[in-house]
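Allow me, if you will, to draw on your knowledge of protein folds for a short while. Thank you for your consideration; the sequence and its tokens are set out here:
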Amino acid sequence: MYGRGKRLRILGKILFILYIGFIVYFLLFSEWYGRTGVMQEYRYNLVLFKEINRFWTYREQLGWYAVFTNLFGNVLIFLPFGFFLPMASKYRSFFAAVFYSFALSLCVETFQLLAKVGSFDVDDLLLNTLGGALGYIVFVICAAIRRRHGVNKTKRSGRR
């Protein structure tokens, strides 16, 4: 049958595919996220930290939910991407996780701009990429724990 590592890789691929489906729906079509109507004009922000600063400056007026959703939500939504990417593919470096997180975020932001279902925001690119990088770091930590646990388990049972 399959070894434990092979089963984890298959699980990672399945979860990665499900995650990509979720992220496409959530970021592009979700009514909950305000993607129901098409805007009349293109909306974009090309000034780095402009929206981050605006959300932080006006956090009292906007409310903590809006601030959390914009600032931390953009990081959290890409965290699984950075985690599942090395599980589901041959690309297992930090650079690959950052590059592909940025690339996916750029595709999403560009689609939102062109389809007028959101706005293109360089701050979102930064936050999404940061989320992918953090997801990769969590993956590395979990892989190290799994390897260490596997080594300790093997030593305790007397196998080599």
Summary: The chain is about 75% helix and 0% strand. Helices lie at 4-28, 50-57, 59-62, 64-76, 79-88, 94-115, 122-157. The longest strand covers residues 44-45.
